[in-house]
Amino acid sequence: MSQTDRNFMTLQFAAKSENESFARVTVAAFVSQLDPTMDEITDLKTVVSEAVTNSIIHGYDEDPEGIVTISASIEGDTVTLVVEDKGRGIEDLELAKQPLFTSKPELERSGMGFTIMENFMDEFDVTSEMGGGTSIRMKKRIVSKKALYN
After folding, report:
1. What structural domains and CATH numbers belong to the chain?
2. What is the value of pTM for the model shown?
3. Which of 109, 119, 137, 150 is catalytic?
4. Catalytic residue at 109?
5. CB-CB contact of 71 with 85 (8 Å)
């Protein structure tokens, strides 16, 4: 694959809840070059929302001094998203991946973030280090609308 078949972007922003929609729209705009279906765009916006919200609420305890980084790349028809924070990290990653588990029940969190990300993407991986932050890496192959109708 030549370098011209690859495109990428990196976005950093303060860990403020009002930046979650900015992150969703930015990733959707970047991926639009692949001519995704509405369902694919919705899936991508949802996983970005879940990952960013996790970073803000769980990683940084809503401390706006924290920085959330999103890296997105496109190679061929595949989008790779990485959402990272340098927050507190996840104490028990396997427990955190369980559906309905939340470390913040007082905030009425559903505990479905990781489950949603895993189900909406083709590949999903989380790494975390206590005191060092969390990185969520996801991949999705985009079937362009042009391919569906040709």
Report:
1. 3-149 (3.30.565.10)
2. 0.87
3. 109
4. yes
5. no
